[in-house]
Write a structure and sequence with these properties.
alpha/beta, Rossmann fold, 2 domains, 30% helix, globular
């Protein structure tokens, strides 16, 4: 077993350039015959975004495990050592191959696609509304479900072909929402805007025209939801077909942004983008 530091940075400060550099390094390592699995230690704030990006873009069957901890090593009942031990154990396991990028924390094995940080003050911080893939207990994996969305070797995207990521940002829906944010993002040249709507990805009446105007300028509009669970229904709440908008399905806004960036390296067609959101 060997280790290296790609960079040391607080995860809330991750940029697209960090994602690309990390993805390229993980891809290169996965091609080495002497590498059976890869573990990435990561701050928990954007861990889920990095895991999903790797899940979409690194073409390997070898286990990739992203791991973090909620307590520092100096804390009572620090969780970092056990989480790291579990990550290494999973990455070294043949039965973890082909399941996409994984996240190990609090004895659970989560899908990098599905998992999100659910709470910020407990060791069981990471959850998925669809449940964990399994558990790792005393160095042994116990699997209960498998991911069905496309990932890694089944992905049409490849980190080796991605040199830059297009600008995609998020605007948040709330009571008494104004359109300042929407219009500002349009002026700085975003290629897509994720709308983190209330409820079923709802859009306030006063924001609809601004979003339609952006779409007429070529900006892709993706309706997501700010609620932690559920999924956005197409043509419910808003006539997506009529407005040529995309729905994020069950992806939270931050993950919808990751997928939109990756997808836009391949296509600018809204129908193709919607297909990608259904499949990934």
């Amino acid at each position: 077993m060997s280790g290296e530091q790609v960079f040391q940075i607080a995860s809330e400060s991750f940029t697209n350039e960090h994602l690309l550099k990390l993805g390229q390094r993980v891809s290169a390592l996965s091609k080495q015959a002497d590498v059976d699995g890869i573990v990435i230690t990561h701050g928990t704030d954007t861990l889920e975004e990095t895991a999903y990006f790797l899940n979409l873009t690194v073409r390997t069957n070898k286990p990739i495990v992203v791991v973090g901890s909620m307590r520092p090593g100096t804390a009572l009942s620090a969780d970092g050592a056990l989480n790291l031990y579990d990550a290494v154990s999973v990455a070294a396991s043949k039965d973890a191959a082909g399941k996409g990028v994984l996240v190990t924390i609090n004895d659970e094995i989560q899908s990098g696609r599905d998992v999100h940080k659910h709470i910020n003050i407990k060791t069981e911080a990471f959850k998925s509304q669809w449940g964990p893939l399994g558990m790792v207990v005393e160095g042994k994996n116990y699997w209960f479900r498998a991911p069905v969305k496309r990932h890694t070797t089944q992905s049409e995207f490849n980190i080796d072909d991605i040199k830059t990521l297009p600008a995609v940002d998020i605007v948040y829906g709330y009571g008494n929402m104004n359109t300042t944010g929407i219009e500002a993002y349009g002026k700085v040249g975003v290629k897509a805007l994720i709308h983190a709507g209330t409820g079923n990805g709802s859009v306030a009446a006063q924001a609809v025209e601004s979003l339609k105007a952006l779409r007429s300028q070529g900006v892709q509009i993706v309706r997501s939801a700010r609620v932690p669970d559920g999924f956005v229904l197409r043509n419910a709440e808003q006539p997506d077909d009529k407005y040529d908008w995309v729905v994020a399905h069950d992806l939270r806004p931050q993950k919808a942004r990751i997928l939109a960036m990756v997808a836009l390296t391949k296509t600018q067609d809204s129908k193709e983008l919607q297909r990608i959101f259904w499949e990934y």
